[in-house]
Design brief:
single chain, alpha/beta, 6-stranded parallel β-sheet, about 50% helix
Length: about 325
């Protein structure tokens, strides 16, 4: 009970990081269409089952499969009679991602949450449904995906009540590989199979469990092996990323992982060393010229005939002289 009220209070305090423009616009339009259909049929109460999708994860980095999970889950729910009015991608907080990368031995590929969120926001900017929810990544500690879903449900419920809109149901959208991890079978979840191996995990979903907890499995036989690990491997090997991530992410990673790229490229390091040596030689040359010029001025001062102190002065280019000053 304490945890529930904690999330209820937190969702109000952090409402600014959960965008609602697409949610409100789509929900108002869906409600108006439902009212019109009800009027045509002579019914007073419109029938509308509105849904909001939520996908959590590290998104280190975002790739095309993350977006496909949302779109395939949306198509499935639409086929089940739901109207999807919003879909949120929620990146995890930095501590969790940093620890995860440390366990994999790839901490050099860690991306801060503000950059990961910016990648998502740019990718979904022109999408009518998808948006980035920064609540989770802005928290001081890690929150597991069921808790993030509860918080979003509480936030959406409060938002709809304040706006006078019909309620929505939050559905988690995740890869089918999570079936072997999600032992509790979180209610209101859409599992999306991405590889042939994922389809075997459907055996872990009895039909009764699916009915009781409103759990759905995306039936498409599409195969998608894309993962954030694969993106990092391709970057490490110097291969193209455009077929794995959105174009702006591919460009952004070149800057975010620039230091990693320099370490992976021995030619770049050799070039840096040569450039550094050239700079040192240039500086030494300039210093020598200044020394020579100064010596010339000193020597020039002693060329006047009859200078009584001429023989008392040291030679300006002592190292080049065959006699002592």
């Amino acid at each position: 009970l304490f945890r529930f009220f904690f999330f209820l209070g937190s969702c109000y305090a952090m409402s600014a990081v959960t965008p609602t423009l697409k949610l409100e616009a789509n929900l108002r339009r869906a409600h108006a269409e439902a009212v019109a259909r009800a009027a045509e049929r002579g019914k007073r109460a419109p029938s509308l089952r509105a849904a909001v999708l939520l996908t959590t994860g590290s998104f280190n980095p975002l790739h095309k499969s993350h977006l496909q999970i949302q779109r395939r889950a949306c198509a499935l729910l639409e086929a089940k009679g739901y109207t999807v009015v919003a879909g949120y991608l929620s990146p995890s907080n930095d501590d969790y991602v940093r620890e995860k990368m440390w366990r994999k031995g790839t901490t050099q590929y860690f991306i801060p949450h503000d950059v990961r969120a910016a990648f998502i926001e740019e990718a979904v900017r022109d999408d009518a449904v998808l948006a980035c929810d920064r609540w989770e990544c802005s928290q001081p500690r890690f929150h597991n995906y069921p808790d993030v879903a509860k918080r979003l449900q509480a936030f959406c419920t409060q938002f709809c009540e304040e706006k006078g809109l019909p309620p929505v149901q939050v559905f988690l959208a995740m890869g089918a590989d999570m079936l072997k991890i999600d032992r509790s079978r979180t209610p209101f979840t859409v599992y999306v199979g991405r590889t042939p191996k994922d389809f075997d995990h459907r055996l872990l979903l009895p039909a009764q469990t699916q009915r009781e907890k409103s759990i759905f499995y995306e039936e498409s036989q599409a195969t998608d092996h894309t993962s954030s690990t694969l993106v990092r491997v391709h970057f490490h090997e110097g291969r193209a990323l455009d077929h794995l991530v959105p174009p702006h992410v591919a460009q952004g990673l070149l800057q975010v992982w620039a230091r990693v790229a320099r370490k992976l490229d021995p030619l770049a390091d050799a070039g840096d060393e040569e450039e550094k040596e050239d700079e040192e030689q240039d500086v030494s040359g300039e210093h020598g010229k200044e020394t020579d010029a100064a010596a010339g001025v000193t020597g020039g001062a002693g060329t006047v005939e009859g200078d009584a102190n001429l023989n008392d002065r040291p030679c300006a280019r002592e190292k080049d002289c065959s006699h002592p000053a």
